[in-house]
């Protein structure tokens, strides 16, 4: 009898698992699966899904290390103002990090304004990250056409930085489970937009 109870206890232990459901190290790439579609749709001619899907694969690998990194909110706000709230009198060259930060903030602004699409996944992690990457893609093209991109910056790098920043914002806002984190992102947006 005691043996059966032990068996039962053992079964419950493994069933409970060491991680919450959907946690672990491989199960949450699904959160980013739709992001390349969101990104390519939002970017239009500035990016295609192969660019985004390749970078998203790398981003998924970095998710757990990004979760522990701080978001430099002040710098992100500054970069967003520099690229999106100003007439083009900015003579400084744009680099991948500053464009990525600005694009993630622009995505946050659009996201909190309900411009992420009306589908049920419109408020998901993949929509937010995809939108940030698309904004970086468009911003890079715009700055490149003006000859204002630093020579050591690439479009891939700028798009990747935007994805990383958006993911950090999302995780910081309380996202990361399977639940939508739109309310967390709205709270984040109200802090610095």
Largest sheet: none
Report how far apart the termini are.
63 Å
Based on secondary structure, the structural category is mainly alpha
**How much of the polypeptide forms β-strand, as a percent range?**
under 5%
Shape: globular
Number of helices: 9
- Unreliable segments (pLDDT under 50, ≥5 consecutive)? 5-28
**What is the N-to-C order of secondary-structure elements (H for helix, E for strand)?**
HHHHHHHHH
Helix content: 55-70%
Mean pLDDT: 78
Integer-rounded radius of gyration: 19 Å
Give a brief rundown of this model.
This protein has 9 helices and no strands. It has helices spanning 2-16, 30-33, 35-43, 49-66, 73-84, 96-112, 125-145, 155-172, 182-192. Residues 5-28 have low confidence and may be disordered.
Write the layout of secondary structure elements.
Blueprint: H1 2-16, H2 30-33, H3 35-43, H4 49-66, H5 73-84, H6 96-112, H7 125-145, H8 155-172, H9 182-192
Helix pairs in contact: 3-4, 3-7, 4-8, 5-6, 6-7, 6-8, 6-9, 7-8
What does this entry look like structurally?
The protein is mostly helical. It contains nine helices and no strands. It has helices spanning 2-16, 30-33, 35-43, 49-66, 73-84, 96-112, 125-145, 155-172, 182-192. Helix 3 (35-43) runs parallel beside helix 7 (125-145) and helix 4 (49-66) packs across helix 8 (155-172). The model is unreliable at 5-28 (pLDDT under 50).
């Amino acid at each position: 009898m005691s043996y059966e109870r032990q068996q039962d206890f053992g079964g419950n232990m493994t069933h409970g698992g060491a991680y919450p459901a959907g946690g672990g190290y491989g199960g949450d790439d699904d959160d980013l699966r739709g992001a390349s579609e969101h990104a390519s749709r939002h970017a239009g001619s500035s990016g295609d899904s192969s660019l985004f899907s390749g970078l998203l694969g790398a981003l998924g690998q970095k998710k757990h290390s990004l979760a522990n990194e701080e978001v430099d909110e002040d710098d992100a706000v500054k970069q967003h103002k520099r690229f999106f709230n100003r007439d083009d009198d900015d003579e400084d060259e744009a680099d991948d990090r500053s464009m990525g930060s600005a694009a993630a903030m622009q995505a946050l602004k659009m996201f909190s304004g309900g411009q992420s699409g009306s589908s049920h996944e419109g408020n998901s992690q993949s929509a937010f990250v995809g939108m940030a990457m698309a904004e970086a893609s468009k911003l890079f093209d715009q700055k490149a056409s003006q000859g204002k991109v630093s020579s050591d910056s690439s479009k891939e790098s700028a798009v990747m930085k935007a994805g990383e920043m958006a993911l950090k914002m999302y995780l910081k806002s309380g996202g990361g489970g399977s639940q939508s984190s739109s309310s967390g992102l709205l709270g984040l947006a109200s802090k610095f937009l």
